[in-house]
Amino acid sequence: MPYSNKLKAGDAFPAMDATLLDGSKVTLGKPAGGATWQAVFVYRGKHCPLCTKYLNELESYKQAFADAGVDILAVSGDSEEQLIAHLTQLEISFPIAYGLTEEQMKTLGVYISLPRSAQETDHNFAEPGLFVVNEQGNLHVVDISNNPFVRPELGALSRGLAWIRNPDNNYPIRGTLDY
């Protein structure tokens, strides 16, 4: 049976970088803009119309995430050229990065798929994953899927993160019991 390296809730989020369109590097899990948490959305790539729809929907929740103190970042294994082409279909203002390597995908523990054809894409790609990293750099919320049809509903996610972040709720990282 092949080895599976799924990150567990409470784990330190692994240090890794991807590239923004301006050529600068962004460190996944390191919030920006005054936020203390970051939600890293791993998406399949330009070839996926469901990813395009999800990323555009995420834009409409950007303020709700910001109000909860959660920065958002999207990343895929696409090339710079693929991301530039994808931007013609996206209406987003949050950071989006490219160049996630297959080794980085394995480190994150996301499912990886082979393209069905050269028309789909030219590289193996990550299936959707969400990694919410807290101010200690630990994985507070994780959700991975093996297909594009199963992803967190963004309204419930943004409300849930606001609730978790409220100190009055004293809500710990869930799912940490080893077995």
TrEMBL record:
Domain Thioredoxin positions: 7-166
PROSITE patterns reported for this sequence: THIOREDOXIN_2
Annotated GO MF terms: antioxidant activity; oxidoreductase activity
A family per Pfam: AhpC-TSA
SUPFAM superfamilies to which the protein is assigned, alphabetical: Thioredoxin-like
Database matches in CDD domains: PRX_like2 (cd02970)
Name of the molecule in the record: AhpC/TSA family protein
